[in-house]
Amino acid sequence: MYRDMPSVLSLLLVGALSFPILTAAADVNSDSDASESWQLVRRSLFGDRTIHNDANRRDGTGEVINLRAPGRAQDAAVVPVAISMSIGQTPQRFIRTVYLVIDRNPSPVAGIFNFTTDSGKADIETRVRVEDYTWMRAIAEMNDGSLFMSARYVKAAGGCSAPNGSSPDFDAFTPRLKLKLDASTTAGKPSLAQLMIQHPNSSGLARDQLTQLYIPAYYVRTIEVTYAGKPVMSAQIDFSISENPNFRFWFVPHESAELKAVVVDTKERQTDGALKVELQ
Question: What is the DSSP-derived secondary structure letter of residue 170?
Fold first, then answer.
């Protein structure tokens, strides 16, 4: 669904690079909304719409959205991120879109994920690159247009520009993907699935250690997941997602049918994969 539209992520990348870099100390000691790169992204994606900061309740969850990420990452190139919702996907009230923003990354919008009522839960887990100490935030857009945000400060550096050896032959590379279920499936109940993509997801910011030339950017751009031919989850992502992208998501099976994923990268290579789901 994204292939025929201009890349919002690419436009934001250009704009974000035009801002002066703020010090990490200034970022962490101020309110998360004070980030200049976030204000650029905010205006580009949401204009002047109100975004509700989803304050944590006593049980550690937000009213709508919850973002989990390590306060200090062990590996800046592979930082685990989990976005979960405190509400389910019902026809009356559901999450339509989730935005994952990493303020100080060269490409701050790491992913835009779309969900349907057939998702069951608008939860998503993945791994990201973090280039500098930064605010990370997840914004949920409801079906009525209201916006809720959960933010987390993450200490990590160098994830987007980390060297990864010599420049690979991307022209000869063949992307692969695999779908798997994390447990048995029951009709009408949300089921957890995992999408694993074998892909370098090269940022274009790392250098070949032999030539010292930059390794070209080459990454997954869009993902579409369907079940029984109906949309479950789709995404527009960027190189802020780690090498070999991995996603955990939910869907609601109503019949024994095919769970299918279609992935397209920046070389317009399309990779398909499917899994036959049998109900218990």
Answer: G
Comparing C-alpha atoms, which of 163, 31, 44 is closest to residue 101?
44
Three-class secondary structure of residue 171 per DSSP: helix
CB distance 45 to 145 below 8 Å:
no
Chain segment 165-179, per-residue pLDDT in tens: 667 889 999 999 999
Calculate the CA 274 to chain-centre distance. 21
Mind spelling out the 3-state secondary structure of 19-87? Answer: CCCCCHHHHHCCCHHHCHHHHHHHHHHHCCCCEEECCCCCCCCCCCEEEECCCECCCCCCEEEEEEECC
Report the alpha-carbon distance of residue 273 to residue 177 in Å, rounded: 6
pLDDT tens for residues 257-266? 999 999 999 9
Q: Which residue type is seen at 156?
A: A
The CA distance from 82 to 98, in Å, is 12
Helices (H) and strands (E) in the chain, counts: 3, 15
Q: Are 135 and 38 in contact (CB under 8 A)?
A: yes
Q: Is 107 exposed, middle or buried (0-12, 13-18, 19+ CB in 10 A)?
A: buried
Determine phi and psi for 154, rounding to 5 degrees: -120, 130
10-residue mean pLDDT profile of the chain (280 residues): values are 44 45 42 84 96 70 90 96 95 96 97 97 98 96 96 95 76 95 91 97 90 92 97 97 97 96 97 93
Angle at 250 between CA 67 and CA 252, to 5 degrees: 145
CB burial string 110-139: b at 16+ within 10 A, e below: bbbbbbbbbbbbbbbbbbbbbbbbbbbbbb
Indicate the DSSP class of residue 118.
G
Give, as one character, the DSSP assignment of residue 231. E
Residue with tokens 């200490």: 155
